[in-house]
Amino acid sequence: MSFGAGLRVALAFVALVLLHYTLRPLLGWRAPIDFLVIAVLLVAVRMRPGLAAVLGFIIGLASDALTPSAFGSGALGMSVVAYLASWLKAVFFADNIALSAMFFFVGKWTFDALYLVSERRLQGPELVMQLLLWSPLAATVTALSGVLLLLLLRPLLGRSPG
Q1: Sign, Cα dihedral of 39, 145, 71, 119
Q2: Which residue of 53, 56, 86, 110 has the fewest CB atoms within a 10 Å radius of its CB?
């Protein structure tokens, strides 16, 4: 990746992180858009798996700093999601909107499952309801937002790698 392309991806990453901490709290939805997952997925597919896992760990750790009761859960979830995204980049980057939506959906749902299980706050029927109702809804909203952002940021991000 050239320096210019790397800079554009870094700017998109920063913009998505800013959206996560500014727009997301204002919306206050039960199934919120997870701009951090979108940001990590967009960058992870442009990195090697090990570096992507480190990026996911750092972003997850930074987001965990705001929730000390579940400290480490976000770092674990983001690390695994970023690693898998980087590893699967050859499958993902076909410039297919439906495939991109599925990629964002699975990434968000995987993150939620890892986060909820590792934080151990919810148990029994509450955990099942969160994993089978609210997490898929949040993953759907995140996937739709991710595809929309991909379409809007296409001039900035340029051609997808692969």
Answers
A1: negative
A2: 110
> Would you give the distance in Å from CA 136 to the centre of its chain?
14
Residue owning tokens 């980087």? 86
Sequential DSSP letters for 47-75: S-HHHHHHHHHHHHHHHHTT-GGGTTHHH
Q: What angle do CA 117, 121, 126 make, to 5 degrees?
A: 80
- The pTM (predicted TM-score) of the whole model is 0.78
CA distance 62 to 55: 11
pLDDT digits (tens, 9 = 90+) for 105-116: 999 999 999 988
CA distance 121 to 6: 38
CA-to-CA separations, 26 to 23, 64, 68, 110, 149, in angstroms, rounded: 5, 20, 22, 25, 19
Surface-to-core class of residue 107, CB atoms within 10 Å of its CB (0-12 exposed, 13-18 middle, 19+ buried)? buried
Structure confidence at residue 93 (pLDDT): 57
Euclidean distance between CA atoms 59 and 70, whole angstroms: 15
